[in-house]
Amino acid sequence: MVRQFLPLNGLRAFEASARHLSFTRAAIELCVTQAAVSQQVKGLEKRLGVTLFQRLPRGLKITAEGEALLPTVSASFDQMATTLDRIEAGQVRELLFLGVVGTFAVGWLLPRLADFQRRHPFIDVRVSTNNNRVDPAAEGLDLAIRFGSGSWHGTEAQRLSEAPLSALCIPKLAEDLRSPADLAGATLLRSYRTDEWSTWFAAAGVPPADQVNAGIVFDSSVAMMEAALQGLGVALAPPSMFARHLSSGAVVQPFATTISLGSYWLTRLQSRPVTPAMRAFSDWIVAQA
Questions:
Q1: Per residue in 171-227, pLDDT tens?
Q2: PROSITE patterns given for it (predicted)?
Q3: Which of 29, 50, 142, 220 shows a CA-CA span of 20 to 30 A to 240?
């Protein structure tokens, strides 16, 4: 196929302007003048015979024609950038896009990730963290480490480890905790799951009438543990993910009672083909776990 001349400068100016809805901010990103960006977009509009932006007193408004063009242009530039990233000093590098629930990333993966890099120096891992709410397809993830039952539609899941929850707090707060029932007078920290503390109290033998279900709600155990470290209350979190805090004495586990409400899983969309990088990471993390 003979490919017609592509106005790359104009397309780049259009794409940046569409993201910022501003010629000025696009010019800052592209390290050119605002006038240059405006002229490049005008040239592209003239070639296409359409208007891509409405010029407003305070910025830009993308037109229907611009909306139709933007996804293709953005995806093309992203693909080119990804390919260029893979080629470094004549050595083709593989990229692995990995989504990880924040607790697992901080408490388990990051301390071990250097080992994977040593074993696979030509795989570049791009880690994005989340609060266990992730859309692998929309985010372009090769693999995602998630917490739950292992059942997600259209997803292949491989169990990595359980993560039992227990009460964790700073030593000063633990001094007033003689039995699990004493937690009724403490500030409780929890995730968005409302049944966590009631389940833990039941496992600890605390009668329902003495249980306290209210508490400060966090969207991640990492933030919850930071609050616990600052003495804001007692966290219900997985001790295995905060082993460093426990070994240093920054936090303690006042009671042995634990509950299991799920596991960590390595997941892949069934529609996503397995690449060598995905296979290498899967084999490594399963062996580590």
A1: 999 999 999 999 988 899 988 887 889 899 999 998 876 666 567 889 888 999 999
A2: HTH_LYSR (PS50931)
A3: 142
Q: Quick one: DSSP state of residue 32?
A: S
CA atoms of 138 and 128, how far apart (whole Å) = 13
- Fold held by 94-160+263-288: D-Maltodextrin-Binding Protein; domain 2 (3.40.190)
CA angle at residue 231 from 128 to 220, to 5 degrees? Answer: 20
Cα separations (Å) of 186 from 183, 191, 196, 212, 236?
Answer: 5, 16, 16, 9, 12
Q: Which residues, in sequence order, are bridge partners of residue 55?
A: 60
In sequence order, the 6+-apart residues with CB closer than 8 A to the CB of 114 are none
Of 6, 44, 41, nearest to 23 by C-alpha is 41
Query: Which ranges of 50-179 would DSSP assign to H, the alpha helix?
Result: 64-86, 102-104, 110-119, 136-139, 171-174
Report CA 31 to chain centroid distance, whole Å. Answer: 30
Question: Of 3.40.50.880, 3.40.190.10, 3.40.50.300, 1.10.10.10, which CATH number belongs to 165-259?
Answer: 3.40.190.10
Pairing state of beta strands 143-148 and 263-269? antiparallel
Structure pTM? 0.68
Helices and strands, counts by H and E, the chain: 12, 13
Q: What's the token pair of residue 114?
A: 């250097």
User: What pLDDT digit, counting tens, does each position of 15-35 carry?
Assistant: 999 999 999 999 999 999 999
- Classify domain 8-89 by CATH number: 1.10.10.10
| Residue 286 DSSP symbol | H
The answer to whether 158 and 259 are in contact (CB under 8 A) is: no
